[in-house]
Specification:
The complex is a heterodimer of chains A (about 120) and B (about 550).
Chain A lengths: L2 E5 L3 H13 L3 E5 L2 H10 L4 E5 L7 H11 L6 E5 L4 H10 L3 E4 L2 E2 H15 L1
Parallel strand pairs in A: 1-2, 1-3, 3-4, 4-5
Helix pairs in contact in A: 2-3
Chain B lengths: L1 H30 L2 E10 L5 H8 L5 E6 L2 E9 L2 H15 L5 E6 L28 E2 L11 E2 L10 H13 L1 H18 L2 H16 L2 H52 L5 H7 L6 H17 E2 L2 H11 L2 H9 L4 H14 L1 H8 L8 H14 L17 H13 L16 H13 L6 H7 L5 H13 L6 H7 L5 H14 L5 H10 L2 H14 L3 H12 L3 H9 L4
Antiparallel strand pairs in B: 1-3, 1-4, 2-3, 5-6
The chains are: A alpha/beta (about 120), B alpha+beta (about 550).
Chain lengths: ~120, ~550
């Protein structure tokens, strides 16, 4: 079973993604902020990271930097953010994000993107 | 106003003085020693104490105390008035001196009532009945003049607060108090109508009839009560606010959880409704609506229909409709927003009523909602717009337009709007989305009375590369303000050709520095021969054209 970590400070979005992806057979780890996400990543191996950009303590871009530069891991990262400005999207990709979705998002679309990212990893 | 200020300043000064007075009074009375003695005699002129003692066979030492030009002669030192009184009776019977009485003695002189300088001073009975007699001790005094000595001296009032009040009055001055009182009454005469003046005057009279100390104590008491009340109100308001916030957070989380389970088909409708507790309470219905709005903000696609279904089935749309009929503008705007997001059908039916609303916020909300509710023709409301289409609405509408990926309409269709800012908005949109549908409508805008509209039309001709508009721009050049002239020069860079060299040459010769720079830039980029043309112009008119060329070529510019 593939393991996905979701870092999102909006509880509603976090729960929605959890329900949606759990139904598809993924094991979902929930992180309420960036720090919690990094702590979990240090203890557990995951197949995909879904992260919001603006979160308390450590933001999405910092998570990408830590995973890529400090942990030296190539785990796929999908960024989910309400900020869809070109500069913000480009910054995330420059740091090492693999995909970007702008809120409001479709759960079906999220599911398709998750599937593709996991398939590419294999 | 200045009189009021003056009065209040005087009052403050008075309060400070009185407080200082109280302080100094207490300081005096706390440090000085007080005791009781028996007064034997008092005289304006000093007595021969030795002779006096011998005459009356007094062996104890007689002490002289001075106060206000009087020489008083006392005997003994007692802790209380009673023992002094007993001793006075004893002395009286033993020596035969009439009018012996006990009195308080301090190291500092005791404040006294006014004494008329006279050879005969009336005795005054104070404190108790011990001093009853006015006595003549002329024979015991060596003076030639006959003097009636009066056992006098304690203050005229004997109640403690009056004594204190009297002392304070002495410190701050009776005259000043009366002056302030009169000033206040005068102020009332000049500023208040008769009915209020009567109340004001009686208030002043009453206030000044009470001892000042009591008034200050009352003021301090009122101040303390006020502060306590305010603190109590703040504390309670905070408590209620926190309680409400906790309640809101609790139900928000709870409803989120219940609705999530329904949205993901874990629970059916009946179970969900049963679990959605306290839904009859208006506050809880508001919380539930806010939860649905958060769902809507974050999710789209297949969830849309389900969120609307929840909103309608729980009849929350009726609450939002009620809000749109509210007298408060923010409630109306809230209702419009909720319906637009959660029940688009109901919103479509009512939105046109608010497009031209008098209130700016409601109008903005309705216009933005219209854009969202009519994806096939998002700006059709512009045709019916009578009220101004503000920049904020334009910006929000544009944001929504891009965020929700609504197909871009042909903005040229709204160029005949009566509102100038609608025309300007359309020109901006035409430039942004590079819409070439109908250039003639843009050319028409060149003849607009508004400078800003003409500027946007020039920019549109430039950005859309509308070569047919070049002659029109050159024709209006002389009559345009500097900003528009610069824009025309800039446009020639893209739509100009060799024929415009003479025009740009004339600008280089006569225009302002900015115009010269822009003319050089347009010439330079117009053709590959641009630099050559510029060099020729420089040589012909003896202008240092290299300076302009360096500026244009500099990537920082």
């Amino acid at each position: 079973m593939e393991r996905i970590i979701v870092a999102e400070d909006n509880k509603l979005v976090l729960e929605t993604i959890f329900h949606s992806l759990s139904r598809e057979g993924y094991q979902i780890l929930k992180a309420n902020d960036g720090k919690e996400c990094i702590d979990m990543l240090e203890k557990t191996e995951v197949d995909l990271i879904i992260t919001d950009l603006y979160m308390p303590f450590i933001n999405g871009n910092e998570i990408i930097s830590i995973v890529r530069d400090e942990h030296k891991k190539n785990t796929p990262i999908l960024v989910l953010s309400a900020a869809g400005a070109e500069a913000i999207v480009l910054k995330a990709f420059e740091l090492g994000a693999d995909d970007f979705m702008v809120k409001p998002f479709s759960l079906v679309e999220l599911s398709v993107r998750v599937r593709k990212l996991l398939a590419a990893r294999k | 106003m200045s009189q009021t200020k003056l009065l209040s300043r005087k009052l403050i000064t008075r309060i400070v003085f009185v407080l200082l007075g109280i302080h100094s009074f207490l300081a005096v009375y706390s440090t000085d020693s007080i005791y009781y003695a028996v007064q034997l005699a008092a005289s304006k002129e000093p007595l021969d104490i030795g002779r006096f003692s011998r005459r009356y066979h007094i062996k104890e030492s007689i002490k002289e105390i001075d106060s206000e030009d009087w020489h008083r002669y006392v005997i003994g030192k007692f802790e209380n008035l009673r023992t002094a009184s007993l001793y006075a009776s004893e002395i009286e019977s033993k020596t035969g001196i009439n009018g012996v009485f006990p009195r308080k003695v301090t190291n500092k002189p005791i404040p006294q009532t006014e004494i008329k300088p006279d050879t005969v001073v009336k005795a005054k009975v104070l404190q108790n009945d011990t001093a009853k007699i006015i006595r003549n001790i002329t024979d015991s005094v060596p003076q030639e003049k006959k003097t009636t000595v009066v056992p006098l001296a304690l203050p005229r009032s004997n109640t403690p607060h009056r004594e204190l009040n009297h002392l304070i009055l002495r410190l701050i001055g009776d005259k000043n108090v009366n002056q302030t009182k009169n000033e206040l009454i005068d102020y009332g005469k000049n500023h208040f109508p008769p009915a209020i003046r009567k109340i004001f005057n009686s208030f002043i009279e009453r206030t000044y009839s009470y001892p000042i100390v009591l008034i200050f104590i009352l003021l301090i008491f009122v101040f303390i009560i006020n502060v306590s009340l305010i603190l109590l109100i703040i504390y309670n308001a905070n408590k209620i606010k926190n309680k409400k916030e906790r309640y809101r957070i609790f139900y928000k989380n709870y409803y989120e959880e219940v609705l999530s389970l329904y949205l993901f088909d874990i629970n059916d409708w009946n179970t969900t409704v049963t679990k959605l507790k306290r839904l009859r309470k208006p506050e809880n219905r508001r919380i539930l609506t806010s939860v649905l709005l958060i769902f809507k903000e974050n999710l789209r696609g297949e969830m849309d229909a389900k969120i609307t279904e929840i909103f309608v089935r729980l009849e929350l749309n009726k609450d939002s409709l009620k809000l749109t009929k509210s007298l408060f503008y923010y409630k109306k705007a809230q209702g419009i927003r909720e319906l637009t997001n959660l029940d688009p059908k109901s919103a479509t039916n009512i939105i046109n009523n608010f497009i031209n609303d008098k209130h700016y916020q409601i109008r903005t909300e309705a216009q933005v909602s219209y854009v969202r509710l009519h994806p096939e023709s998002p700006f059709d409301f512009l045709k019916d717009l009578i009220s101004p289409f503000s920049k904020w609405t334009q910006l929000t509408a544009f944001h929504i337009f891009r965020l929700h990926q609504i197909p871009v309409p042909a903005f040229i269709n709204y160029m005949d709007s009566a509102q100038p800012n609608v025309r300007n908005f359309c020109l901006r949109m035409i430039i942004f989305f590079q819409q070439f549908e109908d250039a003639t409508e843009i050319f028409k805008m060149i003849e607009s009375k508004l400078e800003a509209t003409r500027l946007l039309a020039i920019r549109a001709i430039n950005d859309l590369r509308l070569y047919d508009g070049k002659l029109l721009l050159l024709k209006i050049y002389d009559s345009e303000p500097a900003v528009n002239q610069i824009e025309i020069i800039k446009a020639l860079r893209n739509i100009g050709d060799e024929e415009d060299i003479y025009f740009l040459e004339s600008v280089i010769l006569s225009g302002s520095v900015t115009m010269k720079v822009e003319a050089c830039r347009s010439l330079y980029y117009m053709s590959s021969k641009g630099e050559e043309w510029l060099t020729q112009i420089g040589q012909k008119h003896d202008i240092n054209i290299d300076l302009y060329l360096a500026h244009i070529k500099d990537p920082r510019n």
